[in-house]
Design a protein that fits this description.
The complex is a heterodimer of chains A (511) and B (515).
Chain A: H1 9-15, E1 16-27, H2 66-78, E2 82-83, E3 90-93, E4 103-106, E5 113-121, E6 127-139, E7 143-147, E8 159-163, E9 170-176, H3 186-204, E10 216-226, E11 236-241, H4 244-263, E12 271-276, E13 281-287, E14 297-298, H5 309-316, H6 323-334, H7 338-346, H8 350-358, H9 363-381, H10 391-402, H11 408-419, H12 425-432, H13 440-453, H14 455-462, H15 469-479, H16 486-497
Parallel strand pairs in A: 11-12
Antiparallel strand pairs in A: 1-9, 1-10, 2-5, 3-4, 3-14, 5-6, 6-9, 7-8, 10-11, 12-13
Helix pairs in contact in A: 1-4, 3-4, 8-9, 8-10, 10-11, 11-12, 13-15, 13-16, 15-16
Chain B: H1 9-17, H2 23-41, E1 44-47, H3 49-64, E2 76-80, H4 107-114, E3 118-123, H5 157-164, E4 170-174, H6 181-187, E5 190-193, E6 214-218, H7 221-231, H8 249-255, E7 266-270, H9 280-295, E8 299-303, H10 311-326, H11 348-359, H12 362-374, H13 381-404, E9 407-411, H14 427-432, H15 438-443, E10 447-454, E11 461-467, H16 473-491
Parallel strand pairs in B: 2-3, 2-4, 7-8, 7-9
Antiparallel strand pairs in B: 1-3, 4-6, 5-6, 5-10, 9-11, 10-11
The chains are: A alpha+beta (511), B alpha/beta (515).
Domain Amidase (chain B): 25-476
EC number (chain B): 6.3.5.7
Active site (chain B): 80, 155, 179
């Protein structure tokens, strides 16, 4: 992809004010599809989750999934939206092979939820309130795989395969109002806003919220307004940006690209753009004008959705604590500084942390294990941390450290055993014989031997150079094959050094 | 042996139930008659001879084993090609679906199979149900059994001709703007468009979703009622299906045969559907029928429906708009024929375009273009939006009328069957032919057509349209059965017994003439 001319970011901000807008698609995790009884399942054999309705066969008719309506209402409420007394589906007509009916069943002028607000907090502590225009329901398209061309692109492909398993999966599209005043924070606002949506749908349990599987997809609209002007610039819509980091990068890239283009006397084309994760650039998609004509009209095969106020209130009562509020509460409860807490949040470990601490582990110890050794192992294995061990197992492991049964080093071996499926931490300790040797007898013998073999070190310790004890501690730990508590060893080394015989000195009576 | 093909479905059901005849005999008699007359009539696009006989044999075996079967078990039926059938091609009269066998049955087909009726085959129709003559079928027109040079009505001309030519005692049709009722009128048969939502549309290839309704096509009102009872009722697969508990339509029809069934019934004659453009013989038979009704104790009065004059215009905006979207799925990607462009690259867009160009007929293209235009940004309010407002006004006209009367009547069609080619070059004349039937679809109310005689000038059948308020389908059957009995008593025979003989059969008098 040819790299466009980019302007320095700070310079771009000096000349222009970025104006943003986001459309986030959330795939709901209902058992069945939006308008038929087919399974809503990722990873099934191609075209196995299909029927006359979602294949768009002649005669197929849609039926509304009640669970999808419920999830949409709960999501709308969590975004502070009003829920429509009556809401309608509409057909968005366009021809494309991944859209079986050649129209998308969406909502147009009567969305299920509208007029919401979401306040996000940036790393600087700046709070930004994003106005939500609407959250509407629609069905997803199938998946095209282009064969024979370069890198799976449609250009140059010999043929394309289409899998309609995803066709008809329920989506909620959340559309923001125009976001002004973002200034230099624009990229971070994009990332934080999408993160907040993801966190909300996860807390609600309405979506699997895995961006890598396309459960949450973001279209980012960016335009630039010259400083001092009150006329909006032409916007571009970068489609399907599928990671938080990419949202940030794509917004920044578009600001720099558009600024360079405008300053050079060029004009911005109103178009969709594709984000290229590998090269970090956007490229032109198809032109998109406000006059794009989808010939929307009310879906005649479906009756309006009219959720009773009682039902809406019932659903409101099921809403979980808002994620932002929960984060504030947990950080205070755990006494974490911002960096420590961000580490947990960014690693998506809030839930397991909370469960581990609820199971009795001290907060700092839980953080150390989850963001340290467990995250490292998970990363190496390419899986999530929570898929390796349960919070209860981690809490039990930490308890064994606290009571002196395990050293950190032994605990890492125990953790391996637990992950390997050898049982609970206690069971692994027993079966692998990994407990710290708590009888000082063999330890003292080993220390005395080490001190005797390193008289120069002994002398240094006696001279008050306590750090010299490290060499002896190392030898002892080696002799004990790690099954000793390093702190106890250190304590004993210092103690024994004070009483050990020194070759050069006159022998003192043994005590 | 009793002649098996000129029996009503109700009579056949009786003969089957008491063991006088077998379903195999009945089915074979109809298949043989199809073989004899359908080369001339062309009511069928597909005849499932072997499957029909096999199904009939199974039903006979179950009956012989003492199994309790439904009232129409073993009775043959023809199915309009708009309905999906998993074991027969389903083309909707279009080239684009040539040879397509769906992987499923429409709900109504599932129900007739569950009730042990015997599907004989699929009947001809205007392509995608767009037309009033079957001349728009991609597979050639169906001929009116009364006069093979004339149209059998449309779009369901195949189903109507099949029952009128005694090829089947029963048929299924679909009615978007009159496609059941108008063919019934011009073939001297009975057709009912149920209340919108009364019969499932699942598996009926959609023309205009908000107007389409599946219904019975028969030779008598009672037969229509018996079939309605089989196919009607809630279907969770059709979101617009009503959840009402429906009364027995057959019982309602039988109630109409009792003495005094017409006494005190308030009949409204729609002023706007009885004026200019109506053939003299049609008007004459209508006036005579009204006189008979009055004499039988009905109270006949005139009502006005001032907004009906906009019905055809509104209909020809709503229908094409919905059709343009419903027909978008015919793109060669998942089913149906595929046509590659003659030159240039083979992109999916170009293959779709080439397929649609080759697969759709002119009338279908005309309506897709009209509908696409009517939904376009900037025109939506003026066209589709305004048409929906007219629809509301027409519903109000009906509501006001039904405040005063129990039922509304009009001629079903302005004229008797016209000759092939007469209106093919004049779409407006073809569209105006549906002026009488369209208002019921726009309002979602039930409507019936039953024979009310032959027009003196051409000796061709004239239909009476009866309309009832939404959900009052039973009222149609009671009244329809009473009128049918009244007229047949007056004539001394059924209307169809006057139809000319086809092929070599000698069952009927050949002299037509006015009755």
């Amino acid at each position: 992809m040819a790299k466009a001319e980019l302007m320095d970011y700070d310079k771009a901000l000096e000349l222009f004010e970025p104006v943003l807008g986001f459309e986030v698609h959330v795939e709901l995790n209902t058992k069945t599809k939006m308008f038929c009884g087919c399974a809503n399942e990722f990873g099934s054999g191609a075209n196995t989750n299909t029927c006359p309705t979602c294949l768009g066969l002649p005669g197929g008719l849609p039926q509304v999934n009640r669970q999808a309506i419920e999830s949409s209402i709960r999501l709308g409420l969590a975004l502070g939206c009003e829920i429509a007394e009556t809401s309608r589906f509409a057909r968005k007509n366009y021809f494309y092979p991944d859209t079986a009916k050649n129209f998308q069943t969406s909502q147009y002028d009567e969305p299920i939820a509208f007029n919401g607000q979401l306040t996000i907090e940036l790393e600087s502590g700046r709070q930004v309130t994003v106005d939500i225009e609407r959250a509407h329901m629609e069905d997803d398209a199938g998946k095209l795989t282009h064969m024979g061309g370069a890198a799976g692109r449609i250009q140059g492909a010999d043929y394309s395969l289409v899998d309609y398993n995803r066709g008809g999966v329920p989506l909620v599209e959340i559309v923001t109002q125009m976001i002004e005043g973002a200034e230099a924070d624009a990229p971070e606002i994009g990332k934080t806003y999408v993160a907040a949506i993801r966190e909300i749908v996860k807390a609600l349990g309405v979506s699997n919220a895995r961006m890598e599987e396309g459960n949450v997809r973001c279209d980012a609209n960016v335009s630039l307004r010259p400083r001092g002007s009150n006329i909006l610039g032409t916007r571009t819509e970068t489609k399907n940006v599928n990671s938080l980091r990419s949202v940030e990068r794509a917004v920044r890239y578009e600001i720099q690209r558009q600024a360079a283009l405008l300053t050079a006397g060029g004009t911005i084309t109103q178009e969709t753009r594709h984000w290229h994760e590998d090269t970090g650039v956007t490229s032109a998609g198809r032109p998109k004008s406000d006059a794009d004509d989808y010939r929307y009209f009310p879906e005649p095969d479906l009756v309006p959705v009219a959720p009773s106020r009682a039902w809406v209130e019932e659903l409101r009562a099921t809403l979980p604590e808002p994620p932002a509020a929960r984060r504030k509460r947990l950080q205070a409860d755990w006494g974490f500084v911002n960096l420590e807490f961000q580490d947990v949040v960014n690693s998506d470990l809030l839930d397991v942390m909370e469960a581990t601490i609820a199971a009795g582990a001290p907060a700092q110890a839980a953080r150390k294990w989850w963001t340290g050794e467990i995250a490292r192992l998970a990363n190496a294995a390419g899986v999530t941390a929570e898929s390796l061990v349960t919070p209860a197992q981690v809490a039990a492991l930490i308890a064994l450290i606290t009571d002196g049964t395990l050293t950190d080093r032994l605990a890492r071996q125990v953790l391996e055993g637990v992950i390997a499926g050898e049982g609970t931490p206690s069971e692994v300790v027993a079966s692998r014989g990994l407990a710290v040797v708590s009888d000082d007898g063999p330890l003292i013998a080993a220390i005395d031997e080490a001190l005797a073999s390193q008289p120069d070190v002994l002398a240094k310790i006696r001279d008050g150079k306590v750090q010299a004890a490290g060499a002896v501690i190392g030898a002892v730990m080696k002799a004990m094959r790690g099954q000793a508590d390093a702190a106890r060893v250190r304590e004993l080394v210092l103690e024994r050094a004070g009483s050990a015989p020194v070759e050069q000195a006159p022998a003192e009576p043994a005590e | 042996m009793t002649n098996l093909i000129n029996q009503t479905a109700a009579a056949l059901a009786g003969l089957l139930a008491d063991g006088s005849v077998s379903s195999v005999d009945v089915t074979r008699a109809h298949l043989d008659h199809i073989d004899a007359v359908d080369p001339d009539v062309h009511a069928f696009l597909h005849v499932a001879r072997d499957a029909a006989l096999a199904t009939a044999a199974r039903v006979d075996a179950r009956r012989a084993a003492g199994e309790k079967l439904g009232p129409l078990a073993g009775v043959p039926i023809a199915i309009k090609d708009v309905l999906a059938t998993h074991d027969m091609p389903t083309t909707s009269g279009s080239k684009i679906l040539e040879g397509w066998i769906p992987p499923y049955d429409a709900t109504v087909v599932r129900r007739i199979r569950a009730a042990d009726l015997i599907p004989l085959g699929k009947t001809n129709m205007d392509e995608f149900a767009m037309g009033s003559s079957t001349e728009h079928s991609a597979y050639g027109p169906t001929h009116n059994p009364w006069d093979l040079d004339r149209i059998p009505g449309g779009s369901g001309g195949g189903s109507a001709a099949a029952v009128a030519a005694f090829e089947a005692p029963l048929a299924l049709g679909s009615d978007t703007g009159g496609s059941i009722r108008q063919p019934a009128a011009v073939t001297g048969s009975v057709g009912v468009k149920p209340t919108y939502g009364g019969v499932s549309r699942y598996g009926a290839i959609a023309l205009a979703s908000s107007l389409d309704q599946v219904g019975p096509v028969t030779r008598t009102v009672l037969d229509a009622a018996l079939l309605h009872d089989v196919i009607g009722g809630h279907d969770p697969l059709d979101s617009t299906s009503l959840t009402d508990a429906w009364p027995s339509m057959a019982a309602a029809a039988q109630a109409g045969l009792k003495d005094g069934a017409l006494t005190g019934v308030r009949i409204g004659v729609i002023k706007e559907l009885n004026g200019a453009g109506f053939q003299a013989g049609v008007k004459q038979r209508f006036e005579e029928t009204l006189a008979l009704l009055s004499a039988a104790g009905a109270i006949v009065s005139e009502v006005s429906a001032p907004n009906f004059e906009y019905a055809v215009s509104a209909y020809y905006l709503i229908l094409p708009a919905e059709a343009s979207s419903n027909l978008a799925r015919f793109d060669s990607v998942r089913f149906g024929i595929r046509v590659n462009p003659e030159d240039g690259p083979l992109t999916s867009e170009r293959v779709m375009a080439a397929t649609r160009d080759a697969g759709f007929g002119d009338e279908v293209k005309r309506r897709i273009i009209l509908g696409t235009y009517a939904l376009s940004a900037g025109y939506y309010d003026a066209y589709y939006g305004s048409a929906q407002k007219v629809r509301t006004l027409i519903q109000r006209d009906f509501t006001a009328a039904f405040d005063k009367v129990d039922l509304l009547v009009s001629p079903t069609a302005p004229t008797t069957a016209f000759k092939f080619g007469e209106k093919m070059d004049d779409p407006m004349a073809m569209y105006l032919n549906d002026i009488t039937t369209i208002p019921a679809n726009l309002a979602g109310i039930p409507g019936m057509s039953l024979p009310m005689g032959l027009a003196p000038e051409d000796g061709l059948p004239v239909g009476l349209q009866v309309m009832a308020p939404a959900r009052a389908d039973a009222r149609l059957y009671t009244f329809g059965a009473a009128v049918e009995q009244l007229l047949e008593a007056h004539w001394g025979h059924t209307l169809l017994s006057r139809a000319p003989a086809l092929a070599n059969t000698e069952m009927f008098a050949t002299e037509g003439g006015a009755v």
